[in-house]
Amino acid sequence: MKNIAFDRVKFAFDIERFFICMSQPLPFDLTSDTNPTNAMSLHDFSIVETTLREGEQFCKARFSSSDKVEIAKALDSFGVEYIELTSPRVSIYSRKDCHQIAELGLKSKVLTHIRCNLEDAKVAVDTGVDGINIVIGTSDLLRYFSHGKSIEEIIEIASKVLGFIRQANPRIELRFSTEDSFRSSLSDLLRVYLEIDRLGLVDRFGIADTVGIATPSQVFELVKILRQTTQKDIEFHGHNDTGCAIANSYTALEAGATHINTTVLGIGERNGITPLEGLVARLYVLNPEAIERKYALGSLGSICKLVADKVGVEIPFDRCIVGSASFSHKAGIHTKAVLKNSRTYEIIAPEDFGLERTMLIDHPLTGKYAISHRCHQLGLNLSPDKLVVATQKIKDLAYTRQISLEGIDRILVEFSQS
Ligand code: HCA
Ligand code: CU
Asked: Which atom of ligand 1 is closest in space to residue 133's alpha carbon?
């Protein structure tokens, strides 16, 4: 089993050998170290939101039809470009859901996701969706233990399935993806992508880090190769088993990917994929205005709450933007600076997401600036000396026991009256 792209020399050798075998000139210069970054990708990308497909594979998820409609509408108003739905081949219910959501007239394009076989394709083209995402495993493990097909057979069946769909609906958007791309051999992958590309049937290729094994540099390398090999759009789907999903999605864009898969709160198989809120955070810091123009940022929190409620989990405290701790400032050194200029310790402005920052003062790390700020909020005027003493009293108390904000307020009122 080969793992792609780690040894750069071997990687270069593999790919050169691959193109020689295919009797094709290399479409790019292997010796050049120029950054292929498609700067456009970081501004002009699309989110393929798959809470209603990958997210349905989360251990705690069980969405009713009305849940799905509610989530689809929320994602549509947020502004995601695509909404991916569970295969209509899974059950009569998922089939009905595809029809129903495709008919809602959403601004987001509606996709369904199928295995690479004619039976799935026949049902999918009938659902009225705008596009079909097709996937087939290319790693040795998945070829032996999942569908049992050789690379030749994969190319053959993919050609049939894609040809069938294209003929049935020439305008449908078609994406072809290799499952477990990062445990597939590079030459197998390129062979599959190139052969499919030649057919001229797909709009987009997908790369899937199905088991969350890839590192950002591996993702960069593979996307870069595909970017230089094909003119087609490139979609990246990254699992989060080792916590690299957001970084991997970001580097995919840096390397020229055009579409990124997300789910709300990252829900999916095992511990899920790139979270919507995490990708938004990552891209917002590059260019807040561009992201604000693209998405209704004020509803990100409510979408996360909606999905968390539907699957019966709390929003984890450390989630980018929407976690309860995301905008809380505690140590005196932080609160002092944030009160003067929030940008000192915040790269994301909570108000852009309809959220508020919190200045925590009920703890022994607090400082007189934060306490003075609380006095202002309460309309109290403490002299500088009193402020120092009051702050010390609060620190001492908080060190020995849990104190409440109300308790602190009482102390401050007492000091102001003494
Ligand atoms: C899965 C399939 C998939 C598909 C991704 C894609 C993956 O294993 O459930 O279509 O690009 O992670 O490979 O979600
Ligand atoms: Cu997946």
From this structure: 10
What burial class does residue 252 get, using C-beta atoms within 10 Å of its C-beta: 0-12 exposed, 13-18 middle, 19+ buried? buried
Verify whether ligand 1 is closer than 6 Å to residue 84 (CB atom).
Answer: no
Within 10 angstroms of residue 314's Cβ, the number of other Cβ atoms is 10
For residues 339 and 329, what is the distance between their CA atoms, to the nearest angstrom? 10
The response to whether residue 237 sits with its C-beta less than 6 Å from ligand 1 reads yes
Residues in the chain: 418
In order of their start, the domains of the chain are: 37-311 (3.20.20.70), 328-417 (no CATH)
Asked if residue 5 has pLDDT above 60, the reply is no
CA-wise closest residue to 26 among 36, 17, 35: 17
Distance CA 176, CA 154 (A): 12
| 334: annotated active-site residue | yes
pLDDT band at 40 (very low <50, low <70, confident <90, very high): low
Residue 385 is which amino acid? D
The catalytic residue among 239, 334, 363, 376 is 334
- pTM, two decimals, is 0.93
Whether 362 shows a pLDDT value over 80: the answer reads yes
Q: What is the pLDDT of residues 344-357, one digit of tens each?
A: 999 999 999 999 99
- Amino acid, single-letter form, for residue 92: I
pLDDT higher than 80, residue 60? yes
**pLDDT for 8:** 63
Task: Report the separation in Å between the CA atom of 106 and the middle of ligand 1, taken as the mean of its atom positions.
Answer: 24
